[in-house]
Amino acid sequence: MTRTLLAAAVLASFPALADLPAVGSAESYFRTIRAARRDGPILLDGRLDEPAWQAAELGDRFTQASPDDGMPASVQTRFRVLWDDDAIYLGVECDDPEPITATLSRRDRFVEGDWITFDFDTTNDRRTAYHFGVYAGGQQIDGLHFNDTDMTTDWDAVWESAVARTDRGWSVEVRIPLRILRIPVGASGFGFNLYRNLARRHEEDQWRYRPRGTPGDISQLGELVGLDGIHPVRSLELRPYLAARSTMMRPAPGPVAAPFQLAACPSAGFSERGLAAGCLGLDLRYALASDLHLVATVNPDFGQVEADQRVLNLSTFETFFPEKRPFFTEGLDLFQSPVKINFGGNYGGDAYQVFYSRRIGRPPPEWDDDNGTLLYQPSAQPVGAAQKLSGTVAGASLGLLSAFEPRVFAQAIQNGRVGDVRVAEAVQSEVVRVRMPLTPRALLGFFGTGRDPLFAQADPLHDRQWRHAHVAGGDFVTFDARRDWTFSAQATGSLISGGDKRIEPDGTVLHDGSSGAAGVMKISKDAGPLIGFAAADWLSPQFTVNDLGFMRRANLFRAFGYLQLRDVRPNEWRQRAYVGIWGREVRDSALTLTLQHDFGVESQVWLNSQWNAYLYATYATAAVDDRELGDGTPLERQRSWGGGGNFNSDSRKPLSFGSFFDYSRGAPLFELAWDVGGYVTLRPLSQLEATLDLAYNKNDGTIRQIRKATDPAGDASEVLDGDVATQRRRLYLLAPQHSRSISATLRGTYAFTPHLTLQLYTQLFGAGVAYDGVLRAIADPGKHTVRFSDLSADQPDVNLTNTDDRQGGLNVNLILRWEWRLGSTLYLVYAHQSSTDFEPLPHRGLDLGRELGAFTSSAATHGDTFLVKIDFFHAL
Questions:
Q1: pLDDT tens by residue, 809-818
Q2: HSE-CB of 171 using CA atoms within 13 angstroms
């Protein structure tokens, strides 16, 4: 009822399409401003009181983009731009008769505060730009725009800024070294825009105004001229580091005789209590040409990176984790596909991602107890060295990445003796990306990835040959002159050489010589009150990018359509609102199985009070799952319906909060899933912020496999191989699954100064999985669908307790970051991890209290790590 009323209210707030106010042509707001060559000294103190500033043209007359779109800014902003042979300078004066919101936090973190940001499209390609920003509190933000409308703040550079309070408000001076910018020879102007945020009104003012609903971002920049004579600066930036780490483990991993190498550290010692290591490495950046930069790292250390959030994954799909390591996040935009489908769920989002940097430095294979008693194994394969080459060559954008990962050794007791055992071979990974303009409104791209062992030899643990994996393809993007419509397409092929066979959950066998293909097409409308897209994907059964990319599955055909009616013009009670509908059909690549067929409706509204709310409802028809049974035999899945939503309060307040819920129900059998959670954010001081997130998940009644196919007349312990199981009569054991999980996450930041911050991350996690009512299914040869009516409740002699699972854990990260000199940083890190994944408790059922407290049990392992790391920045 609530969803119906809110959707009706939102729809009622939309004027008739014919009555919608016309969005002005973005071209009609185009602006140009002239920079001046610096003539005289500039003292970077935040005050524009040097005579040199007066030589540059004054920029003013800003326009609101929100809340009162198209109206003059409520406060005055003025700026000027200077440049010389080494840097470009920006000075901004921000008038404000009210108290300034000078929230202080760590670098590259978006908080509620007053700020100015600006974009430089140095190559004038209208697709990419550098992004810089300074808060009134003094902290910096930088990032990269790509594909016109995408952006990442993972790019970091060394530049200077200073903020000052004035009798009229506040002001800021910025110095951007030319060495960090890609500047073509003969450049005379940049794409440019300047933005100002007034936190107390949630007001964004733009110098080059872009009306709401106008497609594009970087393509809509204004222009900074007067740069005739500016030239690229070639320089070498060096950043060596030193680090010392100590890890204490409880209980001790066992008796150890000899020291061994720890991860990427060149030296380590191992004792009954834990590990001690010293690390050193080097990062460098060099401009090979005016628009071609090399970034490299030798023996990088990522000890200061926040731990991944722990989740309970009960699906047959891999969990996707975002990249957090600085070397790989910086410049990652170069390797992204221009074909994006932003919709969640197992069958939502991009069907595949050619390059997933988390594959570099991945965990080594799980230890097999048949190989002895494991004493210690590194948590990840170290990155010995890596390099990225990026820039523009003959008008084409180029990105090249390569990484070397050395061998990984574990220490184990074998035949009564302690020794080193090789668990991962040295590998080399390469990624290449090229994009070139065909016309001003069309782009053609090519890409390739490869992951190859450096020493092809038998795996001592698994008696197999290491495999080579290669992927290559191309993409195409075109759009109309106003960028209202965009068409994009991508075609990809994959090839595996070497390696023993691997059986995918849908029964597909990957082996030496396996090859596959994939393609995706999308057409989208991005402007006006009615927007949307239509997309289709096809992936052949033996297509795979998972050696160096990410995909949830191959053997897939998907058609997806989305349509949204929106009103981006504010009225007396809301800022903007929309209603959207979607439909999706997912099948196997041969179009013989329906894996998902659903449609839904969603609605969101942003109020003038700065609260926002979102609701959705969805219905899915009956389908099948060809991955659950592990050999491609389809298992019936019933129809379901559900919905959910979330709301968020005004984030400007010292206390803000929000919550979410998701609910789904299957029929005719009982099947229920729901998630509920919320957050509270406190900002008692301008330099202190803390957020507590709570989430609870419950699933009941989903029919899951508890034992793979066996011979009904044979030994029940002999599981049939997935590639041959469907050729004979077989028995499956299944049971209704019940699961619970709870997670409490606390994130906090205290900023002593813009360059000295303390960051806290901690997560308490508990989960349990239990089964009841064993069901059996007999399947005849072939891949005939196993239906619920085929399941028998005749229970064989199966101990269900052995299928249950309990998990508990506690992660703590505490990071003190001090930029003690421009570009040079000291890290002090403390990390604690308690974890257990233990045998089921004697009682049946779920007990979240015990699971949350499991990390204090005797079955838990505990680790405390202390890290000191210091890097030194020097530009030559």
A1: 899 999 999 9
A2: 17
